[in-house]
Amino acid sequence: MGLHDSFPAYGGRGPSDLRLGIVLGAIATIFTALRVYVRIRMNKFGTTSLIWALAAWLLTTVTQIFAIISILHGLGNHISIVQKMGELHNYLLYTWITVFFFNMAIPVGKVAVAAFLIELNSQSNPKIRRSLIVVAALNIILNIPQILMAWFQCSPPSALWDPLHQNQCNHTRSVYYTYFVGAVAAVSDFYLAIIPITMLVPLRMDRKLKWGLSFLMGCGIFAGAAAIVRTWAAKFIMSDDSSYGMGILFCWGEVEEWLVLITMSIPPVWPLFRPLTNQFIKYTSDRSQPQYKYDGYGQSTPTTRGHLADGPIVTTTISISSHKGAAMTAGTVDEEGSDSLSRYEEEPETSQMPLGYNGHPEGWMEMPQFNEQKRT
User: Fold this and answer.
1) Which of 178, 213, 261, 276 is the S-S candidate for 28 at Cβ 3.0 to 4.6 Å?
2) How distant is the alpha carbon of residue 256 from its chain centre?
């Protein structure tokens, strides 16, 4: 016995929306679980952003559950079929409950991304930090009226899910405000996708790895595109075939929600996949030179690989500690008793990239962020 037999109003766009939501939800849940594992077992970075991410995952999961119930009762199918099957009351009730949780999940997801980028940026760029705080605050503040407005479109509010009193509802103001909030959400997604790319581009690291991470962390652009389509689809709330049009809205809404969760989980779970990429990564340092790796506490350990070239050679490699706010230090070494010195002029730190293991220097990606000036 299929779903059509148990739920006669199930159909139209509903089945495809249901499958898409379940697939994206499963992927996001796997990434979220891996993120929790990395935080517990591998490093101590990102506690605040993880809490926000778990809150976003919980709200999005609840939204998806009620969306599935709504689909089974006619969301995504034509309104004439929903009325014929006597499911109009259930469709309206579960759809508006879904909208309620959806309006909470969207801003919390944006805040989770902003919180991670704030921790990633640390104190290195105050302008970026302030802008991320503004983005997070705007999404929360502007969505509060959106959450409340859904329940006051009808007089009395219970008419919202009463098929006999739909003429007592006016959705115009709510839909217009949705256009405004949706535009803010789309711009926020684009901004949150571009910012990590600007952090990665200046770093001295393997080009394939740099652009690969830039692409993965910039996939939030697709969430922004989904937000645009979802905002456009809000007009179907006032259409004659609202149940079918709402299927379009929820399709793109769930894409936006789950993509935000998936893309924000890629950087934190990188330590699990880093060993798999070693064969594609070229280290920026010369393997024939001694490397001095700093653990964030000013301690260095020289490692010699291969034959040293003639003349004074100085190699300094910075590895970023997993301890939040740990200081980055650089040193110079004069090899083979030369009287000449080579010095580094250290630039201000631009970002912190928690892409390694439990604070051990070998597990963290080495990212020198200074200009080398050799003086003989």
Assistant:
1) 261
2) 10
Q: Closest by alpha carbon to 134, among 110, 156, 158?
A: 110
Query: Domain spanning 7-271 has what CATH number?
Result: 1.20.1070
Amino acid at 91: Y
CA 210 to chain centre: 18
Domain ranges, ordered by start, for the chain:
7-271
Whole-angstrom distance, CA of residue 259 vs CA of residue 34: 16
Residue 253 and residue 213 in contact, taking contact as beta carbons nearer than 8 Å = no
Tell me which residue has tokens 């495809």. 16
Measured CA to CA, the distance from residue 298 to residue 331 in angstroms comes to: 9
**Coil, helix or strand at residue 266:** coil
Q: Going residue by residue through the chain (376 aa), what tens digit of pLDDT does each one get?
A: 578 778 889 999 999 999 999 999 999 999 999 999 988 888 777 788 899 999 999 999 999 999 999 999 999 999 999 999 999 999 999 999 999 999 999 999 999 999 988 887 766 678 888 999 999 999 999 999 999 888 888 888 888 998 888 888 888 888 999 999 999 999 999 999 888 887 777 766 677 777 777 787 788 889 999 999 999 999 888 888 889 999 999 999 999 999 999 988 888 887 787 776 665 555 444 443 344 343 444 444 444 444 444 444 443 333 333 344 443 444 444 444 434 333 334 444 333 444 444 433 333 333 333 333 333 4
The token pair at 181 is 């909030």
